[in-house]
Amino acid sequence: AVPCVSGGLPKPTNITFLSINMKNVLHWNPPEGLRGVEVTYTVQYFIYGQKQWLGASECRSISRTYCDLSAETSDYEHQYYAKVKAIWETKCSEWAETRRFYPFLETQVGPPKVALTAGEKSISIVLTAPKKWQRHPNDDTVSMQQIYSSLKYNVFLYNTKSRRMWSQCIANSTLELSWLEPNTLYCVHVESFVPGPPRLTLPSQKQCISTLEDQMSALKV
Amino acid sequence: EFRFGPCRVEGVVLSELWEAFWAVKNTLQTQDNITSVQLLKPQVLQDVSDAESCYLVHSLLKFYLNTVFKNYHNKIAKVKILKSFSSLANNFIVIVSKLQPSKEKDMLSISERAHRRFLLFRRTFKQMGTEAALVKAVGEVDILLTWMQKFYQL
């Protein structure tokens, strides 16, 4: 790389890891005051306890403001730092550095897959844990359940007729709700939850299903 | 409840410890500039058997109470950090008071294995300057809690 004068540019700002299911992407904002200037960026990362900074091979002289470091930070029991600098012609900024990043504690666990089946007065809910980020599509799939054995789910149920919300925390992947009203539209969304430090949660898409008509009242008609 | 092998510890809410540390994590870890050194290295905490775990957690928590928190305590100016430290320290005191590592002869080799792990941790600590080591040790409480959580049952 062409040597540049360090400190000739302001640093990138708000550098942080956005991590979901161990897909760890570094994000930053362009340096302030450089509108319309074609700035490029170079990223390095550091494994806590090791000796030196390492270059992110996919993020050298890039113009985008994010860098996927999932492969470099895939050992989620380690902690990491990352840094980025801005370059423009012969000038470059000083490094802007993240705070210590601990994927095992900080990755957001995505929502499970939700399958609903309705009965007359019941809804059966089957949940499938989210998958961990994979380096290659044909790599063996690893479920986030395998990483977090204490993974739980917060299930939210909304009765569209009575407009009442109900929720329950479950540890396994199936839930049978058998005290419902027949012929009623219910909406469900689910969040994954891992006991431990506070984490941002990502709710599943809301899914709605109607319980079946009550056979007894159908016969009376 | 914690189950460190034969040692049981009830009455400690792990989420409280996490909350206490998480409130000050960034402040503490930002103070640690020697990122090339890790006290709680993988060799200290990885693949610890249940039987070893009681000895190791007992040694580590006693060290944190008697050396780390005790000496770092005087440096704390911010009330927020002081509150977090008190919560962590009080919970560590409860855990240590309830741990009863066995002194049976047939457990000697296991306790020695745990002790070697602890010595590795302490040697790294002593190789650093005291100030830097204290800052690093408090910043690594998340590594310690992550390991302890493996022995926690809701």
- In terms of structural class, how would the helical and strand content of chain B be classed? mainly alpha
Tell me the helix content of chain B: 55-70%
- Percent of residues of chain A in helical segments? under 10%
Q: What structural category characterises the helix and strand content of chain A?
A: mainly beta
Report the sheet with the most strands of chain A, covering strand number, pairing sense and barrel closure.
6 strands, mixed
Taken in chain order, the helices and strands of chain A follow as EEEEEEEEEHEEHEEEEEH
Sequence stretches where pLDDT stays below 50 over 5 or more residues of chain B: none
* Biggest interface, residues from each chain: A-B, 18 and 22 residues
Outline of chain A, from the CA principal axes? elongated
Taking Cα atoms only, what radius of gyration of chain B do you get, to the nearest Å? Answer: 15 Å
- Count every helix of chain B, treating DSSP H or I runs of 4 or more residues as helices: 8
Task: Sketch the major β-sheet of chain B.
Answer: 2 strands, antiparallel
**What fraction of residues of chain A sit in β-strands?**
35-45%
Strand order of the largest sheet of chain B: 1-2
Number of strands of chain B: 2
Overall 3D shape of chain B: globular
Percent of residues in beta strands of chain B? under 5%
Number of helices of chain A: 3
List the helices and strands and how they pair.
The complex is a heterodimer of chains A (221) and B (154).
Chain A lengths: L4 E5 L3 E8 L2 E7 L10 E8 L6 E2 L10 E3 L11 E9 L2 E3 L2 E2 L5 H4 L6 E6 L4 E6 L15 H4 L4 E8 L4 E7 L3 E4 L7 E9 L13 E4 L4 H6 L1
Parallel strand pairs in A: 1-8
Antiparallel strand pairs in A: 2-3, 3-6, 4-5, 4-7, 7-8, 7-9, 10-11, 11-14, 12-13, 12-15, 15-16
Chain B lengths: L1 E3 L2 E3 L4 H9 L2 H6 L11 H4 L4 H23 L6 H20 L9 H20 L2 H10 L1 H9 L5
Antiparallel strand pairs in B: 1-2
Helix pairs in contact in B: 1-5, 1-8, 4-5, 4-6, 4-7
